[in-house]
Amino acid sequence: MLTQRAPDLRRSEITPKKLYINRRKFITGSTALAGMAFLNKGLGGPMRHQGRSQFSIRKRGEYTIADKLTSYEEATSYTNYYEFTTGKRSVRVLSKDLRTSPWPIAIEGEVEAPFKLDVEEILARFPLEERIYRWRCVEAWSMVIPWIGFPLKDLIAICRPASKAKFVEFTTLYDPDQMPGVKKKVLPWPYREALRLDEARHPLTLVAVGMYDEALPNQNGAPLRLVVPWKYGFKSAKSIVRIRFTEKRPKTAWNTAKSQEYGFYANVNPKVDHPRWSQARERRIGEEGRRPTLMFNGYEDQVAGLYTGMDLKKNY
């Protein structure tokens, strides 16, 4: 069992006595499925996201870093979510009433058979873990966030993609009644992003349903989003409603809108500048000054092999 000195503990790491007792009962007599049902109950309807709710069951994932965490307040109040607004500080207010339950997700394209499943089914099927990842925005600011989720490759396995599937596309919610930003033609809506299938299956690629021991806030992509930590943040689609497997590379939102500024791959690369600013250094939210940007956001050892033989200045 891992132990920490009291000064090292975050408030969110302190388990309430009631949850601890319930967790002991769960460990001694519950199945994994029953455990996930207990998790859902403990969240009081985790997909509704009405305030902060503690996850009572989790494990620390192997892909985690020791960097100092960005504060919860900054990570949940300084966000990009253009479906609501291009302003970072106002997303939290404009998204607070987003309806996130029920939340069906369509599985389509090059699969054995299309189907739908709800986020509640996903929570019941996959055990959750915490992973602390570096998070790098293309606008040259960064954070360190403890995400809660499961590897995307596990979800892909139940989707049963066909042998000719080479890419996986993610489409996010498009709802003008709830999302005022989509009434402006900032991007081609609905928002779409995509990964090569080998990138999607990489063990670092995470499906996140929570952060900082809490269910995902609406402004951070509730109820379910991607986290691809070696790529710029716009690749990690929020509030996903459709997953489609394709043989040809799909068109994606930012690459379609401004292809000279936003490449399909969007790997963090300090040697490839954005046309309007340098990517060599970054501003870590909560710190003074700037720090050097790391190749692949510091995950070079894990993911560089995915791009062997590719010119990363052309395939940016």
Topology at a glance:
Elements: H1 17-29, H2 32-42, H3 72-77, H4 91-94, E1 104-109, E2 115-118, H5 119-125, E3 129-136, E4 141-151, H6 152-159, E5 167-172, E6 192-196, H7 197-200, E7 206-211, E8 214-215, E9 225-227, E10 240-246, H8 253-257, E11 281-284, E12 291-292, H9 300-303
Parallel strand pairs: 1-10, 4-11
Antiparallel strand pairs: 1-2, 3-4, 4-7, 5-6, 5-10, 7-8, 7-9, 11-12
Helix pairs in contact: 2-5
Total of domains: 1
Task: Please compute the radius of gyration using only Cα atoms.
Answer: 19 Å
Number of strands: 12
Q: Poorly predicted ranges (pLDDT <50, ≥5 residues)?
A: 1-53
Helix content: 10-25%
Described by its quaternary structure, the protein is: single chain
The CATH architecture can be named as: Alpha-Beta Complex
Strand content: 15-25%
Order of helices and strands: HHHHEEHEEHEEHEEEEHEEH
CATH hierarchy, class: Alpha Beta
Shape: globular
Describe this structure in words.
This protein has 316 residues and is of the alpha+beta class. It has one domain (58-307): Sulfite Oxidase, Chain A, domain 2, CATH 3.90.420. Helix content is 20%, strand content 20%. The chain has nine helices and twelve strands. It has helices at 17-29, 32-42, 72-77, 91-94, 119-125, 152-159, 197-200, 253-257, 300-303, and strands spanning 104-109, 115-118, 129-136, 141-151, 167-172, 192-196, 206-211, 214-215, 225-227, 240-246, 281-284, 291-292. Strands 3, 4, 7, 8, 9, 11 and 12 form a seven-stranded mixed β-sheet that branches. It is globular and about 50 Å long. The N and C termini lie far apart (43 Å).
